[in-house]
Amino acid sequence: MIVPLREELTAYQPRNAQEARDKELILTYLDSCDDAFLRSNRIAHMTASAWVTNRDRTKVLMVYHKLYDSWAWCGGHADGEEDLLKVALKECREETGLQSVRPIDGKIASLECLTVDGHEKRGEYVSSHLHLNVTYLLEADDTEQLRICEDENTGVKWFTPEEALAASTEPWFVRRIYSKLNARLSELKGFPSEGKLSSTVSAADD
Fold first, then answer.
1. Beta bridge mates, 48
2. Which of 44, 49, 83, 179 is least surrounded by Cβ atoms within 10 Å, i.e. has the fewest?
3. What pLDDT digit, counting tens, does each position of 161-202 carry?
4. How many CB atoms lie within 10 A of CB 197?
5. CA-wise closest residue to 146 among 92, 69, 88
6. Where in the chain does DSSP place strands (E)?
7. What sign has the CA pseudo-torsion 157, 161, 162, 168?
8. Nearest-angstrom CA–CA distance, 29 and 83
9. 183 within 8 A of 165, measured Cβ to Cβ
10. Can you tell me the distance from the alpha carbon of 182 to that of 201, in angstroms, rounded to the nearest whole number?
11. What's the pTM?
């Protein structure tokens, strides 16, 4: 049975001040806006992201995102879909070409409100706005062939967890999100325990 998103969000236990504040903002916005799942809401709308690992937890998958000019996670807009795990799976498949991708536990792994600067997309200007984002942990077969999505990215690649942090050119994401997601993966059986992960977690929790 699919748990309604609001119920899932309410039950989610934030790990730090950023998640606590962002959880409050997301819930308030969901209660006050009928179009929070649609891009037609040009102030803020729901999105879903995925932190993708291989089966033995030694690699994470990233795409080189055109908009942000950086190696980044997979993700995209809800576009009316309220099952955000479904959105995260769909976006991962579209952006990487993977078909074997699946949820690790189906639970929310992270919450964040993300600022998006104004930009051009398909010849039209998109004003600055917020992405009210829910992140899930996914697992995929790292031997499966990868494919770029020409509309969104120019590269798809597996990295070690530490390499993924070094590859990103977005310091806020590395410090606040990717480090935290690596730490969450480290709690799963089979993920290598290394000092670098514990040190980055403390930075994300300040």
1. 76, 134
2. 83
3. 999 999 999 999 999 999 999 999 988 865 544 433 333 333
4. 19
5. 92
6. 44-53, 60-65, 70-72, 74-77, 102-116, 119-121, 124-126, 129-139, 153-159
7. positive
8. 17
9. no
10. 8
11. 0.87
Give the model confidence (pLDDT) of 7-66 as tens digits: 999 999 999 999 999 999 999 999 999 999 999 999 999 999 999 999 999 999 999 988
Q: What is the pLDDT of residue 151?
A: 83
Six token digits for residue 131: 């992405």
CA atoms within 13 A on the CB side of 122: 3
Enclosing H/E stretch for 166 = helix 161-167
Taking the CA atoms of residue 83, residue 89, residue 91 and residue 97 in that order, the dihedral angle to the nearest 10 degrees is -160
What tokens does 146 get?
Answer: 């990868």
For the chain, the distance separating the N- and C-terminal CA atoms, rounded to the nearest angstrom, is 36
Tokens of 199: 């040190």
- The token pair that represents 82 in the structure block: 């309220």
